[in-house]
Amino acid sequence: MPLRPSLVLLAVLLAAPAIAPASAAEPSLVVRDAWVRATPGAAAVSSHAASRGGHDAGATAAYLTLENRGDRADRLVSVASPVAGRAELHESRVENGIMRMRPVEGIAVPAGGSVRLEPGGLHVMLMGLHEPIAEGRRVPLTLTFESGATLAVDAEVRSR
Questions:
Q1: pTM for the complete prediction?
Q2: What is the rounded distance in angstroms from the CA atom of residue 109 to the CA atom of residue 150?
Q3: Pick from 64, 43, 53, 51: nearest CA to 129
Q4: pLDDT per residue as tens digits for the range 106-141
C-alpha cells in the first residue's frame, strides 16, 4: 500500500527536531558588571618605557563578576588587554592590620556559582599601561579559563 503524501510530510515534520543541528548552547561562563578604574590625569612616563620609545602610564585594576551557569567548575587563569603590557590576577587582604596585595595563580569559579572581583579582594591588575585610562572609555579584556574557554569583554572605565 503506497504512503499518502500527507503521512510522509507528517513523518518528516515530526522527525525534523531530532535530525536538525543543535542550536548554539548558552555559554556556561558569563561576565557581568566589568569595569576598570580610571587612572589619574596625566601619569608620568617611566624612564624604562621611555628608553624603549614607549609609554608606561602606570597601573590600574579591573573588576567584574564571573558567573558559571554550567555543571563543571572552572578557573580563570589569565587576562590580557591591549591597553597594558601585562595583566595579573591579584588578591588584596588585610594581614596584621596592613592591606597587602599579592598575585594568585587562578580564580576558581564554582559550578552553578559566581565569584566577584572587587576592590579590596580579588581583582585584575593591568600594568605597564600604554596610556592613561580615562573615565567613560571602554577597555577590552580577554579572559582565559583552565578549560580552554576564552571570553572577550569590554569593560567600562569608571572613577570609582
A1: 0.76
A2: 14
A3: 43
A4: 999 999 999 999 999 999 999 999 999 999 999 999
Distances (CA, A) of 97 to 39, 103, 128, 138, 152: 27, 19, 29, 35, 37
Task: Give the H or E element holding residue 91.
Answer: strand 84-95
- DSSP structural state of residue 18: H
Backbone angles phi, psi at 7, to 5 degrees: -70, -40
Residue 120: how many CB atoms within 10 A of its CB? 11
Per residue in 134-151, is it b (16+ CB within 10 Å) or e — as a string?
eeeeebebebebeeeeeb
Q: Which three cell numbers stand for residue 98?
A: 596592613
> What are phi and psi for residue 50, nearest 5 degrees?
-65, -40
37 contacts: CB under 8 Å, gap ≥ 6 = 60, 61, 62, 63, 133, 157, 158, 159, 160
The SS3 of residue 38 is coil
Residue 157's nearest CA partner among 20, 38, 23 is: 38
